[in-house]
Amino acid sequence: MRVPFDDQVKHMRNVAHQARLEALAKHTPEERRERYRELDLRVVAHSKEEIEVSGLFDPERIYISAPSSTSPP
User: Fold this and answer.
1) Would you give per-residue pLDDT tens digits along the chain (73 residues)?
2) With the CA atoms of 27, 30, 33 and 35 taken in that order, what torsion angle do they form, in degrees rounded to the nearest 10?
């Protein structure tokens, strides 16, 4: 069975996203805050739909995703 390339890419992004979430969960809140400080990470929520993210990272490697279609509980 052949899987379309776009579906393979989407699956790999989901796997990578899940791995990052699991990696973060292994650290204490203090350890996560320290990593965010090292990256000079700043997130400002202007509204539910608009956030501003800045820090020490390569702007050419930033991925923008659409808001989730599910509402938080």
Assistant:
1) 788 888 888 989 889 989 988 888 899 999 989 988 998 988 888 888 888 888 887 766 666 666 655 545 4
2) -50
